[in-house]
Design brief:
Length: about 375
Amino acid sequence: MNALSVLAVVLVLLSGSAALRAARRAAVDAREAARARERERFVVATTGSLVDASRVSSAAVMRELAETIHRCDPSVDAVLAFAPNGNDLECVYTSGARVDHYARLRLARDAEAYLPARAAIAGHRVAGAEGTVIPTDRRALAVPMLDRGEVRAVVYASSALADAIVGDDVLVRAIECAAAPYAIALEREADRSHATYDALTGLLTPRAFRERLREEVERARVRRNAVMTLWFVDTDRFKSVNDTHGHAVGDAVLQKMAALLRAQAVPDLDVVARNGGDEFCALIFDAQKTVAIERAHAFCEAVRRHDFGTEPTITASVGVASFPYDAEDASGLLEIADAAMYHSKRGGRDRVSFAVDGNRFAEFR
């Protein structure tokens, strides 16, 4: 074979090789384009479900996000969400079999030994096998949820497998998609909280309490054997305190009254509210009427003994009415408890009166 023939063969081989490389590049580009389209479809679907969840609650957003993370990477078997709380990051959401004891876990925001704190400080993802939160973690990823430059939460996804969480980009994209819906849900909850809780005392507002009272009466009506007792509380001589010492002192008195009322309530069971002005209400559950009356008397004694630092002395007049004995519905219960409270005031204040047969009242002795 002469030199020209050899050259021709070489050229053919080279062109074939170039064509093969080009074909391979085209195939790689096509696969990348397909993956990019799949990621975009995933982002659109994820964003829609997260926005829907934001209409329910911030916890619903976290649940939806955790489910999305598990779908993206089944090797992830633990998801924690840490929210800023003062100088700490507090765990506000958990998902997975290995996270039972991590609810409300607090990490210092400057504790760079842990991935969530490092991610919050850096403002971007942090991954690896060092700085994990759960002792059985072999690999983890922490991603801050940023809204207008503010860290709203840090999502921590981890696995007990060392070769897990290989598709970091997809998980990061999912978490980033959740940031805005989560922030919206938090803002809605803050708005509802302001409407639900009295700004001065932290107790339920009148509107929120009446809604709760109606719900509880209907629930008790279904259960039939349930007993609820309503206290209607008035702060005696409060107008004189306000007129003599000013509104700042008056506000302090109301805050102390709210604290005393809350102290008499059973945590996570009884419901306490500010009824407006210097009036308060408490809904007492799982106590017979006689027991609720005795507890109301103990509240009056606590108010009498408390040093409010004012003159005249602060006391409380309380009216008591129970469902179903004294009223058949929420509005009737409020009216009768209110009337019983006025019976206490007419009797000399600093005492408890209760309904007898709905339209008569007696004082506790």
